[in-house]
Specification:
127 residues, mainly alpha, 6 helices, globular
Length: 127
Amino acid sequence: MVQDGLGQIEPIVTSIRKGIKYIVASEGRLLKFSEHAKNLQLSSKKLFLDVTTRWNSTYLMLATAAEFKEVFSHYGDSDGHFKWAPSHEDWIKVEAVCELWRSSIGLLKLYVGVIIQLPTYSFQKFG
């Protein structure tokens, strides 16, 4: 389910990943991005670059990037070389996939919690 959602937005994920790599590759660009974030009251947040083989880190990268969607737009307007600002429609898709992941993670935690708690309860009751 998670991989299906990710596959549908792979070009957007790749664009966000490239944009983050571009920004964090230069202290000056990162400072400029941070200034835009501060102006939008997002100064305590930080960009997150994923490990491409781990879907959960891709989720964290996208969820964090979505919090910066306005900053990406402002940054793109101020840096003529920045070509990776997702469109409004792209952000809607990213947020939808993130919501799907949040729901999946919640169900997984519930399922794992039940699996872990049941044997413990059984041992306490009969042990």
